[in-house]
Amino acid sequence: MLTTRHGVRPLGVADLDAFLALTSRSPVVNVFADHRARTTNLEPRWLGGEMWGRFEGGDLVAACHVGANLVPVEASADDARAFAERALTRSRSVSTIVGPHEAVEVFWNTVASSWGRPRELRWRQPHLQIDGAPSVEAHPDVRRTTRADFELLYPACVAMYTEEVGVSPETGGGAELYRARVQQLISRGWSFARFEGEELVFKAEVACASPYAAQIQGVFVPRERRGEGLAVSGMAAVVDLVRREIAPTVSLYVNEWNTPARRAYERVGFRESARFSTVMF
């Protein structure tokens, strides 16, 4: 029975099938939420937060992941506003709002006066995907990383995160947690890199995956090696590996102003399929 405003309530294990049917409407765009649902069964203790659902006539019509990341799922402007009004009944706990542009914009406009000034707003990030062979040759030396690569890989992960987010993942005593995250990606087979001797020259990771898609994060080439085409051949290799062994479609989203990265992804064969927005605190 629904007892909350606007037909919004937390979802649980009994809602899993309906939730997966919802994410399947746009399975590539919704890969993060799909992944979280499949790996937690929507159990709050495993989610580390909540998954809210909005219902109309007993049917689940939209959802919102509320953890460290707040992510609207298949949310119209009206749905996003309803989720925002629920969010305003509690203090802000999320560090990032991210998802399709329209839903994020409506959500943010509703909570902005109460949630304080964000550290950064990234309004129109192209969401890209590829579901076929890359348009360029993959570099044969790109491979899954192993625990033996950790000492070369970890500094590149820190450098990428710091450059992308604007703050080191080790800030505030976060080094141990971030090291564990990098090791987890290695263990899953979701970390890829190319090395030249003792030098890492390219890396990328799978952030999340479903039976339909895998989302790439952490694409990085050291500053002194940029402009050599390492990201193009490296990403072509990652696309091949991921499509063959993890999921049939590969996606990512990129900052609108990052022209070199956008050109590299275009050369590989990625095409824009949506626009994302990110609000960072």
UniProtKB/TrEMBL annotation:
The keyword tRNA processing does not apply. The keyword Transmembrane does not apply. InterPro entries: Acyl_CoA_acyltransferase (IPR016181), DUF4081 (IPR025289), GCN5-like_dom (IPR013653), GNAT_dom (IPR000182), UCP21603_acetyltransf (IPR016794). Residues 140-281 form the N-acetyltransferase domain. Pfam families: DUF4081, FR47. One of its GO terms (molecular function) is acyltransferase activity, transferring groups other than amino-acyl groups. PROSITE patterns: GNAT (PS51186). Keywords: Transferase. This is GNAT family N-acetyltransferase. It comes from Nocardioides anomalus.
